[in-house]
Amino acid sequence: MPHDPSETVTKLLDHWAQGDQQALAALLPLVYNELRRVAHYQLQRERPDHTLQSTALVHEAYLRLLGNKAPELQGRSHFIAISSRLIRQILVDYARERRAAKRDGGCRVAMELIDAAPVLQDADLIALDEALNDLYRTDERQAKIVDMKFFGGLSSPEVADVLGMSRATVDRDWSTARAWLHRQIQRTASS
What we know:
- With about 190 residues, this protein is mainly α.
- The protein has helices at about 5-15, 20-45, 55-65, 75-100, 120-140, 140-150, 155-165, 165-190.
């Protein structure tokens, strides 16, 4: 194995992409702390009485990764970006189940707070997820940027590296995506 940790991660990702499930098992200890950071970052945006913990989110994401075909990955940052999207989906699924149990509803997302790590209630997260899914259909690149920055906590340079574009393009798309999401959520809320 190479001595550089990022080189080791890249090599394990390549092996996993070729169907080696044991490579994923070897990969987890190398990226576990980073995945916990992503999970913790996302849980900080959740309501204070949320019952899921960072560790449980990472383990659930790992189980889902084990059950799926390995995505095409371009290195450590891209793996973290994919994992953060998976963690977001776990939180959205949890929020939907909780909302269905309570018969709660409504769209109350304050998109102007998207940079300020707002606390999201279940309905907020679901509304944002639905708008973000619409953005994936409209402009996948902008949606990926939102996923990586808002849900994954990646910086603009990290996102630029994963997507192979300039930081200026990432920042411009980030601004455009935030405005688009705000309009979509407002439109949904007034319907």
